[in-house]
Amino acid sequence: MQVIKMRTHIVAISLALLLILAFTSMQNVSAQSQLYNVCWGHMISNPDPTEIDYQRDVTSDVNDMFLSTAGWNSWNAYCEDTSAYYLGSAIDYRQNTEGVWASDFWVGDFYGDKQTGSNWRWEYIPVWDGFGYIWQWVYMYDEPVAESLHYNFYGEGGDHIHDDVLYDWTGPVSVQHLTFIWTCACGNWVLDPHYPFTGTYVYGYNDDLNYTGIVGMPLAWSHQTELGSGYCYLGWNSTSRGMSWDTGSPNYIPYKTFVEYFYEYLLDGNTVGDSLDLASHQLWGQSVNWYSEGNKLGYGEEFDGEMHWINVYGDNSLTLPTY
Q: Structural domain tally of the chain?
């Protein structure tokens, strides 16, 4: 399990002060407001310079949109301020501040890694004591366990963000009401290993089979196995489009424009679903290709011979609150 890097007391205090200042000194916001947005993101080493410029642009633009909306705090933490330390500190602040409603936008690269859990664990089992069986806690060795694929974000200086650690931060009741993750695979719909023969798919699960913790970014951010009213998570099922990639419009328009249209409509009072539709109309002159399967809702398109889409989990009728 990834552990947040330890820092010296001086560095930790200075970083904490910077974080507090980032939230308390934002412009256009009343002191009583509890609406918080953060734009995050990071790419792998030696990224494409054009793509990283477009990612910087889109996070700056989205951040400015929130700052221009009455009642909203916003912080652009893209690249240099995206790390497990900063994310953990931001979530801790929001989770422990009364009345917070949080929104997050993330763009960049994801990476998967296969983790193997510990074979040693405590089990409550019947043990023969010479006269009969009594139940006792026993520290025992299990058969070798398999690997489980986890979903992770890159962080500055190698301080990466892991789904199982993120889940620990967002509980017990997450205030992360809207999360839009524009990376590959971090909105993935995965086969639940507890039901391998029934084809049960979920957006995350507790890996108590291989003992590697929580799997899946939607579950890690929301801290809920079923997203209901008031919560929405958006993320790509597989390969995401680059912010600098062409949307296929008659004239070159990059995908960052789609994100900007989406947030423009969302901050104007439209629902998540309507904002996706309106952004699609703005670019392509048509509604998004909506589909529904099980309890997931999304839209997508085919490119490179594969179907790629953004999954929309939870409440697609969600609107942003205004104070």
A: 1
